[in-house]
Protein 1
Amino acid sequence: MILAKKRLIPTLLLKDGRLVKTVRYDTFKDVGDPVRAARVYDAQGADELIFLDISASREGRSLLYNIITRVAEECFMPLTVGGGIRTVVDIKKTLRAGADRVCINTQTLLTPGIINQAAEAFGASTLVVSIDAKKNSQGAYGITSYSGKKWIGRNPVDWAEEVENRGAGEIFLSFVNRDGTMGKGYDNNLLRQITDAVSIPVIASGGVGRLDHFVSGILEGGASAVAAASIFHFTDQSPIKVHAYMADAGIEIRTE
Amino acid sequence: MIAIVDYGMSNMHSVLKAVEAVSYDRVAITVSPGQLDDATHIILPGVGSFAQGIRNLRDRRIDEALYRQVIKKGKPFMGICLGMHLLADNGDEHGPNSGLQWIKGRVIPLEARGESQIPHIGWNRLSLCKNSPLIDDSLSRKDFYFVHKYHFHCEDVDAVLTKTFHGAEFVSAISKGNIFATQFHPEKSQDNGLKILKNFLEFNHP
C-alpha cells in the first residue's frame, strides 16, 4: 500500500534563545545557535523540525517567536513549535510567528478541553499533543507534566486515546527516562501499544543512540515519524546519512 | 504585484517568504478586497477549517473581489490546502457549508484504509493526470509536504491535475484555465515546492 513517507525529525530544544540539550529532562548543555542549526538540517533534507521551548520567562518567549520567524524566512519546510503553550491566543501567536503546527503538553493535562478548542479553531492537523511517558521504579508507565517533573500517573495508552478523541491530529510521544541518554532507543513496547490504540500518526522521541533505533521505532513501534536530538548534536550523523540508512533497511523515506 | 490574500486563516508569512525567494516582483499581503485590483497573480493560502475559511472570505467581501479578479478578469490564481478546498461547491468540515463554487466537487474527510493514518501528514508523491504549466513530469516524481484531514472530491474530471495515494487515492492538485490549486504545501516543500510557485508566477493568462 502506498502511504505518506515516514519522517525523520530533528528536535531543537530552546532556552532563552539558545539551542540546548537535556539529559532525562534535566541538566542541560548549550549546543549553539538555533537558526544556524535549522539551516543545516534544512540543507540536509530533514523532513520537519520540532522546536520545544523550555524558557520560563516572558523574554524567553519573545526570543522564541523571533527565532521561529527567522527560521521560517529561510527554511521552506514544516516547522512544529511547542513548549509553554497555555491558551488559544498562545497558539495563534506561535502560528503567526511562522510555525505550521503547534505542540501542547502540560496544558492538555490541566484543561483537556484545550485540545477540542484548538482543533476547532485551527484544524486537527495543526495540533500535535505531546505525551511525556515515564516508567516508575515499579516498572509501571505513567504520564508526566511540567517537562517530566510532575508524575500524573495516568496510563499513557488511555490518555493517547482521549487525546485522539478530543481532536488532536498527531501525538509526540517522549520517553522521559531515555531522553538524552543515547542509549537503548525508543521504548518500542509502549510505542506499539499506543500506535495500535490510536489511528492518528505518532512521532517517537527519546533515547536514540544508534541508527537502527530509528528503524525499530517504525518497524517494531509502528511510529509514523522518528525524532532525535543528541545523535545529531553530538555525533557526525546527519539527516542525509540517516535517510540513506533507513531506506536501505526497507523504510519508505525521502532520499533526495 | 503578487497578492497573498489574508483572510485571517493562515500562515501568510511562510507563503510570502517563499514567493520572495522565487520572484523579483513586489509581493503584498492583502487585507482589503480593493487591493486585489493591482494584482497580477493571486494566492489564497490557508490553514484552518472550511467553515471558518468561507465565513471569513464572505465577511470581508473577499469572495466577491476574487470572483471579479479571477473569474471575470482571468487573473492567474493559486489556492493552497484550505485555499484549494474553498473552490469547491460544498465542504463538510464543521459544515456542511457552500464554497466559492468555482470547481465542481465536495470537500470530505479522508478515510483511513489499512495502515493509513489520518490526518495525512508528511511527504508524498504526485501522479500526473494531464499537462499543465504548474507541474511537469519530472516534478511529479518528487516529494511534497501534505498535512490535511479532508480532501477535495472533484467532480470536474478535466480539472484534476494530479492524484496522490495515502491508503486511498485523492486529488492533490487542480488546474483549470487560470485557476491552479494544490492540496500540498509548496511553500513547505523545500526546493521542489519553490519550483511550483515559480511555475505559477511565470504563468500569464493568454
Note: The longest helix of chain B spans residues 190-201.
Protein 2
Amino acid sequence: MDLHFDDFVGNEKVLESFQQFVHQLEKGSDKDRDFVQLLNRSMARQYRLLEDADRTLAKYAPLLQQFIETEMALAQGASMTGPLKLTRMAPVPANAVAVSSMSLLDFHPLELAKQLALREWSYFKRAEIDEYIHLRWTKSNKHKSAPNILQLIRRFNELSYWVASEIVSTVNKKKRVVVLTRFLQIAKVPSDITSSVTCAH
Amino acid sequence: MLAVLSRYEQLPSGDGHLLWLEYAGTHTELHRARYIYLYIPLYSAAVLTAAQAIQRLRKTWKGVGKEHIALLKELDQLFEAAENYKQYRTRVRAAIDDNQPVLPFQGVYLKSLVFIEENGDKTERGLLNVEKLEMLYKVLYEIRMCQRYPFPFAEVPQIQDYLTNLEAMSDDDLYKNSKQCEENTSETPNQLRKSVKLKKKI
C-alpha cells in the first residue's frame, strides 16, 4: 500500500475493487480485521503526504511556471527569428515573486551571469565608434560628445562598488564567505577559448 | 525549423561557463556555432577591482575555497597590464574569431586610445601619420567586432530589475562596514582606510 499508493489515487476502478476487498476482509477473522486497520492507517498517512506535496507544489508553482515560460520563449524565439529577437521576451507570470524580496543568493550563478551579460551588453551596444576618437570622453563637452562611454564608466564603477557593498554589508561571517564565493562563481571565465573549442568538436 | 535541443552544459574540466546551443539549421554565423561562451571580462574586471579593495578581510578570505582563490589569481593575471594587456587581448580576439559574443572591458580600449593619441597627426616630414591611423583602426575595429552579436538569452525580468537597481554604498559606508566585519584585527586605521578605498579602474 505504501509503495504503490500512486496507482490507487486517481484511478476509481482500482479504488472500488480495493474497497470491495476491504469489505470482504472485515467480514473475516480477527487477523483479517487487524490487517484492515493497518491498511486504513497506511491510507490516511499517504493522503496526508499527498496534501503536503500539494501545498509544496502550490508554493513553487509560480517559479516553475516562470521557468517553463522562459524556456518556451527561448525555444520559440530560436525557431522563428534567430538570436536578435531572443533578448527581449520572457512573459511576466501573473503571480511572480516580488523583486524587492530577491537577493543575490536567490539566483543561480549561471543565470545571473547570463542576465548580467544581457544587461551590460545593452549598455555597451549603445556606444558609438565616434565617441571613442579624439579622446572625446575626456574633453570638457564630454557629456554631449561621448555620453555612452561615460555611462559605461559609471556602470563599471557601480558594478565594482556593488560587489564590495554586498560582501561588506553581510554581517554573518559564514554568509559573507558564501556571498564572496558566489561573485567569484559568476566570474568563472573560460580559461582557454581556442583550445576548449577544439575539445568541443 | 530551428530548435534548441539542449540548453547548456559545463565543460568536463569546469573551465568557465560554456553554453551549448544546438541548432538544427543555420541563420547567422552565431547560429552556426554550436556553443556559446558566456564571456564577460567586464564583470571579471569589476569583481577583481572589488576583490582588491576588500583584500584586508582576512577572515572572510580564509573561508573561500581553493578553486575560487585560484580563479581570482587567474583573473589577476589576465588583467595584468604588461605588454599592453596582451593576455586579455589575445583572449578577446580568440572569442571574436570564433564568432562568439563578447562583453569586453572597455578600460583597456580607452587606455590604448590615450596612448595612441599621444602620437602626432603628422610625421616629422609633415606627412600624414598613417601608423597612428592604423593603430586607431585596430582598436575601433575590435570594439565594433565585439558589438556584433548580442547574447542569445531570454531576459528574466526579476533578475533584470535587480541588476538595474544595484545597491552600492559610498566609500565611507564601505569603510565603516568593513571595519565591523573584521573588528578583532590589529591593523592600524591608516592601513584599513588605504586598502578599503576602491581604485577606479577606468
Note: The radius of gyration of chain B is 21 Å.
